[in-house]
Amino acid sequence: MAQLIIAAMFASIVGILVIAFLGVALARTGKKVTARTTLLSGIVAGLLVFMTLAIVNSYTVVQAGSVAVVKRFGEVVTVFEPGLNWKVPFIDQTVVYRTQEIVYETSDNPDASQADYTDYQVDTATDDGQQITARYTVRFRIRPQEAANIVNDLGTEPEVVEKVVKQNSRVWVRTLLRNYTASQLYSGDIREAQEAIETQLRSDFEKEGLDLVFFGLRQIGFTDAYKQAVENKQIEAENIITRKNQAEQAKYEKERAITQAEAEAEKQRLERIGVAQGEAESIKLKAEAEANATLIKAQAQAQANELLAKSLTPELIDWQAVLQWSGQYPTVYTPNGGQQMILPGDLFTGPSSPTAPTPTPAP
User: Fold this and answer.
1) In the predicted structure, residue 291 carries a pLDDT above the cut 70
2) What is the pLDDT of residues 119-138, one digit of tens each?
3) What angle do CA 138, 140, 141 make, to 5 degrees?
4) How far is CA 100 from the centre of its chain?
């Protein structure tokens, strides 16, 4: 309606200017012009201007990746899709919403951000009272089919970002991060907190006709005092680990020395056992060799005796006796009138070489 009033006022101003211009111009030339003619010229000029503005305002071009909600006298009548769309000039008003991804981002320097909507980082505290700052990113879409409800309930796209995206995200980030200790967030494992915030935002966005595409905690900031305390704690923990490792190393060295000593003792014991076994084996082999030699010698002697026994004949025995005779007859002892007895003599013993026997004189 305002556009109609503005267009009518603009056309009226143009018509008045035309009337004034024609009156002044014709008066200078000395031509006689009636007031009716001058007024008619101004009206025609104003109508032409008004019609031109009406034609220009009778259509709208909706860009790809967006929709336009049409309001007539404050009431939503339709939603324009991307392309050329016709509307009632000066009466129909359009509210354009992007259906592409829209990025809202918080940081310590919003002016340097390339996001569609920027804001400052969120200040909050952890469960154990540590002050922190949170920088995060939200990517979302406006549902085209919900555009009519959004324009009625929330307003324009910047108002949607302000009322839903900004307010809800900052509240949930500030609230839910209080459920975690500083050590949990400082370690960098913030997935659990991120998922908790994302779940709440997704539910809120769906109720308002938005789709949450992504939520991410980019950085959790801590005070310098806490960073220094954590660093000192980590240094002490590293020292404890180092001392523990040194103790373990000493224990290992001790066990290794004991193991080496036991191994050396076992080696010496085995060597002594080996030497003893070797000596015993040597003695055994020597005894077996001597026994075998004695056995062989005995067997040879037995065989020799056997051969010798087989070779002995009475004639050979007599001959050997003759060879061994010393030439002396045995002593004969005759008791009184008794039988003669031959006393032992050296019949079968004599010198190393045989000699001719010497007859013994008769008694």
Assistant:
1) yes
2) 999 999 999 889 999 999 99
3) 165
4) 36
Name residue, tokens 């020292």.
Answer: 239
- Write the DSSP symbol of residue 141: E
Nearest to 143 by CA among 158, 159, 160: 160
Q: What is the pLDDT of residues 22-63, one digit of tens each?
A: 666 666 666 665 667 677 777 877 788 888 888 887 878 888
Of the two residues 23 and 353, the one the predictor is more confident about is 23
Please give the Cα distance from 143 to 150 (Å, whole number).
9
Instruction: State how beta strands 102-107 and 131-142 pair.
Output: antiparallel
Return the sign of the alpha-carbon dihedral for residues 243, 246, 247, 248: positive
21-30, 136-145, 207-216: least confidently modelled range:
21-30
Euclidean distance between the first and final Cα of the chain, in Å? 199
Span 101-222: which CATH code? 3.30.479.30
Q: How far apart are CA 84 and CA 68, in angstroms?
A: 11
Q: Which of 57, 196, 178, 186 is nearest to 123 (CA)?
A: 178
Evaluate whether 79 touches 144 at the Cβ level (below 8 Å).
yes
**Is there a contact between 224 and 259 (Cβ–Cβ < 8 Å)?**
no
Round the CA-based radius of gyration of the chain to a whole number and report it: 68
DSSP characters over 37-106: HHHHHHHHHHHHHHHHHHHHTTEEEEPTTEEEEEEETTEEEEEEPSEEEE--TTTEEEEEEE-S-EEEEE
217, containing H or E segment: strand 210-222
Cα 87 to Cα 77, 93, 133: the distances in Å are 11, 8, 49
128 beta partners = none
The predicted pLDDT at position 144 comes to 92
Beta bridge partners of 97: 67
d(CA 216, CA 290): 97
Contact 230, 186 (CB under 8 A): yes
Q: Which residue is listed with tokens 């919900």?
A: 146
Token digits of residue 215: 């939520």
